Every structure is written in C-alpha cells, then in structure tokens.
Amino acid sequence: MTDSRQTGAEILIRALREQGVEVVFGYPGGAVLPIYDALYKQNELRHVLVRQEGGAVHSAEGYARSSGKVGVVLVTSGPGATNAVTGLTDALLDSIPIICLTGQVPTHLIGNDAFQEADTTGITRPCTKHNYLVKSPDDVARVVHEAFLVATTGRPGPVVIDLPKDVLQLEGTYTSKEGVQLKSYRPQVQGDRERIRQAVAMMAAAKKPILYTGGGVVNAGPRASELLRELVAETGFPITSTLMGLGCYPASGKNWLGMLGMHGTYEANLAMHGSDVMINIGARFDDRVTGRISGFAPGARKIHVDIDPSSINKNVRVDLPIVGDAASVLEDMLTIWREEGYGKKADREALASWWKQIDEWRGVNCLRYRKSDTIIKPQYALERLAHHIKPYGDDVYISTEVGQHQMWAAQFLPFNQPNRWMTSGGLGTMGYGLPAAIGAQMANPGKLCIDVAGEASILMNIQEMTTATQYRLPVKVFCLNNQWMGMVRQWQELLHGERYSESYSEALPDFVKLAEAYGWVGLRADSPSDLDGLIEEMIKTDRPVFADVRVDQKENCFPMIPSGRAHNEMLLGPEDQVENPITEEGMVLV
Amino acid sequence: MIQPPSVYEFQHNEERINRHTISVLVDNEPGVLARVIGLFSGRGYNIESLTVSEVDHAEHLSRITIVTSGTAMIVEQIKAQLDRLVPVHKVRDLTLEAVHIERELALIKIVSTGERRVEALRMADIFKARVVDATLESFVFEFTGTSAEQDDFASLMRPLGLVEIVRTGVVAIGRGTATL
C-alpha cells in the first residue's frame, strides 16, 4: 500500500491488518457505517456479525483466550457501546486482551445529546485498562498501535477506541506501528533476580510447600505452562490452581490437587491452609479463593509473583513480592533451583510426609456424590462428557456460563493444556458461554468447542445461536437443565431458610424445538441411560447441537467454603449443612 | 537451612490511619483527572485535597498533588493503582519518601467596620497575609501557609467578619536538590 492519504476508516483497517488481526466481532450502526463500508471493499479482515453487542465482546474473549491473540470488537455509538460494557468489565476482571472499537457521533455534535450519543469514554473508563477518543484521522493509526500495546502487554485487558464519524470519513495519513511507544507505560517483565533467589531458597527450605497458580500463567503464554510443569517436576511440590488457571498444570499430573477456593477440592484447600510456604504465581488472592482472610493459610510464608504491582498486598499481605511476567520468573526460578542444586538439598523427608498428609485428604474423595439410576445427576453428566471427549485429547475447548454447572465443569472436566478453558471468573457473567464458544470455534476451526451451560444463563445470550448457524460453526451446548438458577437456589437453601425467592423458572422454552428453529440440532436426555447416546450423537454431529440434559433439580455443589469461613471450614456435602450453620457475618458477604 | 528474612517488614500498627501527600506526574490530556478521581471514588479511597495544573507545556505534563488518608496497606494500594494508569509517569509519596514543604493559598473575604475591621487588618499583618482588594466595608486577604496555618487564620478571622473563603488545596515539593 502507498502512503497516500486515506480515510480514517481505511486507516483503521490498515492498522488492524498491520497488527495481525484476522477476525472482528461486531454489529453495524449509523456511526460506524464508514468502517463497514471500508470492510466491504476488502477481503483480508473477516467480520463476524453477532446478534447483540454483548455477544461480540464475549465472542472476542473466547477467541482471545483460546488462541492467545487479541480479540477485536466493532460496535456502533450509544447503545452499541453501552451493550458492550458488561463484556468489557468481564475482560478487565479476567485480564483478557480486547480491542473494542466504538463509533461516536461526529466531533461537532459531541456533548449535544445527539442521536445515539453516549459518553463512551466516560462510561468505559472504570471498566477498561485504558480508552481513547480519537479527534483526528491522523491519530487513528497511532492510537490503534498504542491500544494493542496496552491491551497485550503487562497485565492484559480491554482497551476502547472511540471513533467519531467525521474522523472515519475525513482523510489522514497512516503511521506504522514501528516506533510507537508510551513513555508513561513500561510494564516490568523481568523479576528482581535477588528476590527470586530468596524465593527459591524459601522453597528449598519448605516442609509443607504449595504452588498456587492462576490466570497469569495462561496469559504469560504456553512457555509459562511448560516451565511450570518443569518446576513441579524438579521440586515435587503439590500444585493447585484458581478457576482461571486450569490447564496450566495438567489435571492428569500426579502433583495436581484440583482447583482451590469456594468450590475447590478438600485436598487443595487444606493443603493451602496447612502449608508453610505458599508460592502464588499469577493469581490475585481473590475472595473466592481465600475465604475469610484472617483464617487464610495462617502458617504460610507467602511468595507472590504477579506482573501487576497493584495485585500485591491488596487482599493478603505477602512476605516476598516479585513483580514480573510468570514465564520470565519461572525461568529464573528453575535456573536458580538447578544452579544451587536444591533438588538434592531440599528436605525430601518433610516433603514425603507432607504428601502423606495430602494423600489422606485425597482419600476423603470430596467430589463424591450420590449416584442414581433414575435421575441424571449433573456430576454424572459431566463425568460422561469427560469420558466421551477424552479421545479428542487436547483438541477440546470448553466454555461455561455461570453458576453451579460452571463449578461442576471445573471440578469434573480435566484440563491438560492452557487456553482450553473459557469461563467468566472475576465478573461471573451469565450468558458468557455461548458467545465464548463461538469465538473459540472461530479461532480453532475443526476442533470440538463445547459450552457447558445452565438453562438460566444461556437464555441471557440465546440470540447468538443464529450467529453460529450463519457462520456454520458446529459449537455444542451441553445444557444441564434443572429449571432453577441453581447457585441462587443453593444459597437460598443454605443461607435464607429455603425461601426460594424468584429462582425457579416457571416457563422455559422447549430447547429441542428452539434449537431446530435456529437451524441447530436439538437433543434431549431425561434419564441416565439416555446420556451416553446423547453425548455421542452431539459430538459426531457436524452441526451446532443443543443438548438439553434434564438433571436433578435439587443437587447442590460441594465441597463448599461458605462465605465468611476459612479453608479448613469446608462443607463436604449435605450431611455437613446441619452441623455447620452459616453465621450472620457470612450472610452479608456475597 | 536458614530461611531468608522477609523483604517487607510491615509496621505492626497497620490499622493506624495516616495522612499522606502524594505527587503524581501525568500526561496533560483530556480525561486524565477523571481517571484519577474515578479511581479514588470507585475504590472507596479518601481525597482530602487535590490540586492539578500543567507544569511543563512543551512535554504536556501536569502535576497532581493529592492528600489522602488510609492504613499503610491502603496507601500502598493507592500508589500502585495510580501507577497502573496508562498516562501516569511518576507517583511519589512525599510523606514517606521525602522531607517536603506543603503550602496552600487562600483568598479570604472580610466584611466589617470599626474596631473589628482594624483588628482584622492587624491579624492579617501578624500572619503576613496580603490585602489584594479593599472597599470601605471589606477586605480580601491573600494568605499562603500550611493547611494548619490556614485553619488557624480562618478561625481567627471568623469573629472579625469572615464571610467567604476559597482555598487552593495543598501543593507540595520535596526539600533539597532531589526532584520528582
């Protein structure tokens, strides 16, 4: 391309191409018509037309999370931008790199309450990592390049670029990404070597160590997961992970304790509680993970590796903070561990007795549930799903909606690689799973993409079924249908005297007919004997499939750390509920 | 094997709430002040005073001085959050890191006659406040001092006819040769 003058819209597309963008998830409208016109005249950038802007952002999140690339969103001004806000907040809390291009009314109309005008930069300021309002076509390319830099480096996150219509129509000059930098923005990638040395010495001296990893390892790229596996192999330490970090260490690995936190495993939570040295890599001591802070791992000296300095000492005081990228710090840790010969010097006897203790906890078999021949237990449905997707190995991408089914999916489906698990962790956005599966399928053609759903959540973005139909994306929805907002119902049972206020869906669509109406294949299972056939059918069908799995309406998700409790105060099952009533203090927490 | 000591020796009186003066150097661009203020309101931090003005026109840099209060852990968090904003260049806690000077400027309007008017003028003289406007019934004094001196001067002026006061909020700078 020549450097002759182009319109703002053409410059925008050229800049996106220079950044390697292949797919944009969007929805047109008045203010972005110049961009859609420019899209029409080219063949390099693919546009996926969603059915609501919220779906566009979640699709972009699924695309980003499953591919390691940036998710790009294009929406119009006003309602287009405000509909994107939930997805942007979701991406901010889960640190997903997103570029969201929003249309804006022409610059001379800004502030006039013009048609479809909203103060987009004002509204999105607290729910983005950064945002821009572009005032001149000459700035378009530079801003796009800056936005990619901000979205992808440091702790990744969403960046909004607000583009007034006149800026898109007027001509300007293009700026290449070479040399674009931000003087005030330089994330620290390399960890402080001396502190890493101290951390490794602490690890070598540990008697009851625990590795606690999170989404930061996924964000640091596949190399970070490889290094993590090496570190576990070298040290022999037990490892647990947050919801966001599943897959970095394989669920099939022998040191794996399962997920930790509110619905984490007994062994993971008790190992956290009883540890003497905790190594947090890329996790943020979220309240779902820590439980009651005053009772959180009281005997542990804590090492915290995080690329975001504001994550350190925010919720939990740590003894040794290391600011840096997970991959870089893990690499240094391994080098030092080997250089110092800690593998031989470390207290193997203490570690062996720690493992003995952990194996006792494992023996509790905390994920057990009462099986049934007549009614489908949701856990059983997921065990069967896990069985049937096993032959596909690492080529399976799972997304979820939010609620009980999400926690069961985290507990019962094994993740052996990073970037295979898309879930709304921080914000807990119902309606995330279907668009995320669509995004994952766009990024991974030919692979199996399954949204493990609940019937309440999926209705929040059900319109995206037609997006999958239009682009022939053979996504699968595996819907655990219990007719309740299951997690709400569970809390009402445990915390609100079984007063089930508004948590039952008296009217639900016939999902099989709904699937057919959308051009999908609809399947249903009512009894455990239907299940294997349904799953086989779902997987082998080369079209989008909605599997309506009618499960036990009363099943609760255990183990559970009730709010306001510490890791060693878990409820293991229904029999624990009576003996451990939840306190008033716990009730006010979320 | 000896365990190395903690890198951070936390103060034991962590719950004590202290006042901190923080200097922030930012790009002078639209929305930067909204980002800073939104951070404080969104995360529930206190702002006791905030001043902002461009300090380097060629480099488009503004300097914000924020007086806030919180426990040691909260103040550490405030600084980390400020530093995370993309247009923020530098964050410095003057209270912790530097011997510094704080000043505030106030304009104070006195309406009084007779003995009270004379006394107001005498007090202003003692405090080295300048008269910047005068009528037969009123004065406007310009007074520069620390926040505590501002409080003292205002409370002395109140019975002498103080009807209106405007304060700039704190500006602060480190002593000696060191700069931000």
Q: What does this 3D model show about the protein?
A:
The complex is a heterodimer of chains A (590) and B (180). With 590 residues, chain A is α/β, with parallel strands linked by helices. In chain A, 39% of the residues lie in helices and 16% in strands. In chain A, the strands form 4 sheets. A 6-stranded parallel β-sheet of chain A has the order 3-2-4-5-7-6, with helices on both faces. The longest helix of chain A is centred in the N-terminal third of the chain and has 15 residues, at 53-67. Chain A is globular and about 70 Å long. The mean pLDDT of chain A is 96. Chain B has helices at residues 32-42, 72-84, 94-97, 114-126, 147-157, and strands at 18-27, 49-56, 61-70, 88-93, 100-111, 130-134, 138-145, 162-167, 171-174. Chain B has 2 domains: 18-98, Alpha-Beta Plaits; 101-174, 2-Layer Sandwich (Alpha-Beta Plaits), CATH 3.30.70. In chain B, 29% of the residues lie in helices and 38% in strands. In chain B, strand 6 (130-134) and strand 7 form a beta hairpin. The chains are: A alpha/beta (590), B alpha+beta (180). Chains A and B meet through strand 6 and helix 8 of A and helix 1 and helix 2 of B.
Distance between the termini of chain B: 42 Å
> What's the number of structural domains of chain B?
2
**How many discrete structural domains of chain A?**
3
If strands are numbered along the chain, what order do they take across the biggest sheet of chain A? 3-2-4-5-7-6
Give me some keywords for this one.
heterodimer; A: 590 residues; alpha/beta; Rossmann fold; 3 domains; 6-stranded parallel beta sheet; 25 helices; 20 strands; 39% helix; globular; B: 180 residues; alpha+beta; Alpha-Beta Plaits; 2 domains; 5-stranded antiparallel beta sheet; 4-stranded antiparallel beta sheet; 5 helices; 9 strands; 29% helix
